[in-house]
Write a structure and sequence with these properties.
The structure holds 2 protein chains of 2 kinds.
Chain A lengths: L37 H17 L12 H21 L7 H17 L12 H23 L17 H43 L5 H37 L5
Helix pairs in contact in A: 1-3, 2-3, 2-6, 3-6, 4-5, 4-6, 5-6
Chain B lengths: L1 H12 L9 H132 L6 H13 L1
Classes of the chains: A mainly alpha, B mainly alpha.
């Protein structure tokens, strides 16, 4: 990027993390748990987006679908098939739950791509909330449905007897690391992408005529971020289904 | 490269993600949002889309069944049409044969009548011809007699009619 070397380091002010600052919507007071903030605003927009996408578009309930209804049916079919294929038929009880997570993450990711917007899913607090919800759901449902038998997923019966205690320890650790990896994967991906775009944007502001280079880089990064937004929503959802299979499906070890 | 170091320094200054004072706020609103989306989806959107998809599936199944039935009916109709066509052809052939026989009969009768008429006419004509032939023979005899009498007179002989006619008759027979 520093090919021209014309920018003055002292004059370059890039604040790639400013876009993630949580601010109150009204006034400048302290942020209490109930304060309406830009988080509230963009989550509300996500709710409206989900409603427009899945409710308004299907209001005619047409046998021959309109474009909007086709999209809604596409989402429905995609997640329905995913839950059924991965979590099994029993897992379909959790289809509305999985669909909620997917639509929220998907909409939030794409809303975050709007310039000047706020990306709620780039915050570890939000993704951790989602991941811990999934973790609690899986654990509670697993114990309710299977009782102590749920613990047998940590006891790898197909391994040699000597290795089983070792594997059990590894399995337990990996089980409790799940919410961490689940949330950091999503939040980190979006955080990094948005920060990089902002850094390039800062270069563009300081490089004068040569700024077409960072602008092209931003365009390329933006394309990549579109991909990341969809893929991370997909990954988050498919992992949720994989975890749900532990709770409702047959033992897979 | 100095700029990148600068950017990193900026990032290290503060990550809003790690500002834990905003966490309760974010978690609260995230939970509210999830609950709202969950109710929108589970109460309205998903049952509706599921019903639409089921409707479509049953409509397609029904349409396929109806199409199959219509196809069967078309096949049956074609068969009935072919049967009707075949019987109509047979009927037509029968009518043609009957008409041919009728015509033949009429034709035969007419031919016979015409033959009889022709035979009668021929007989009559033969009679007339015979009469004419007889008439002609008499006329020849008379002309011969007259001619002979005149010849005899011209040659200076005299003969009575009886002798001349006897001589002519003898000659004519001779």
């Amino acid at each position: 990027m520093a090919t021209t070397g014309t920018e003055a380091p002292s004059g370059l002010q890039i604040h790639p993390m400013d876009q993630f600052i949580v601010k109150p919507l009204f006034g400048d007071g302290p942020i209490e748990w109930y304060t309406p903030t830009n988080v509230t605003l963009w989550m509300a927009i996500a709710i409206l987006g989900v409603t427009a996408l899945l409710v308004l578009s299907t209001r005619r309930r047409a046998i021959v679908p309109s474009r909007g209804q086709s999209v809604a049916e596409l989402f429905y079919g995609f997640i329905h098939k995913m839950v059924e294929d991965i979590a099994g038929h029993e897992g379909l009880k959790f289809f509305p739950y999985v669909m909620t997570l997917f639509m929220f993450v998907f909409l939030s990711n794409f809303l975050g791509l709007i310039p000047m917007s706020f990306t709620t899913t780039s915050h570890i607090a939000v993704t951790a909330t989602l991941a811990i919800l999934v973790f609690l759901t899986v654990t509670i449902v697993g114990f309710v449905r299977k009782g102590p038998g749920f613990l047998s997923m940590f006891w790898v019966s197909s391994a040699p007897l000597l290795l089983r205690p070792v594997l059990a320890v590894i399995e337990v650790i990996s089980y409790f690391v799940r919410p961490l990896s689940h949330s950091v994967r999503l939040g980190g991906n979006l955080l990094a992408g948005h920060a990089v775009i902002k850094v390039f944007a800062g270069f563009a502001g300081a490089m004068g005529v040569a700024s077409f280079v960072p602008v092209l880089a931003i365009a390329a990064m933006y394309g990549l971020e579109v991909l990341v937004s969809a893929v991370q929503a997909y990954v988050f959802t498919i992992l949720t289904c994989v975890y749900l299979r532990d709770a409702v499906g047959e033992a897979h070890h | 490269m100095a700029t990148e170091a600068h950017g990193e320094a900026e990032a290290a200054v503060g990550m809003p993600q790690l500002d834990f004072s905003t966490w309760p706020n974010q978690i609260f609103w995230a939970l509210v949002t999830l609950v709202v989306i969950y109710f929108v989806l589970s109460r309205v959107a998903l049952p509706r889309i599921g019903a639409v998809l089921a409707d479509r599936k049953s409509a397609i199944t029904n349409d396929l069944a109806a199409a199959e039935e219509l196809k069967q009916r078309a096949v049956a109709a074609e068969k009935a049409y072919n049967d009707a066509l075949a019987s109509a052809r047979a009927e037509a052939a029968k009518i043609v044969a009957a008409a041919k026989a009728d015509i033949q009969k009429d034709l035969d009768a007419a031919t016979a009548a015409a033959d009889a008429q022709i035979a009668a006419k021929a007989a009559e004509s033969e009679k007339t011809i015979a009469a004419i032939r007889d008439g002609a023979a008499d006329a020849v005899a008379e002309v011969a007699r007259d001619t002979a009498a005149e010849l005899v007179a011209a040659l200076g002989g005299s003969a009575d009619g009886k002798t001349v006619s006897a001589a002519v008759s003898a000659r004519l027979k001779g």
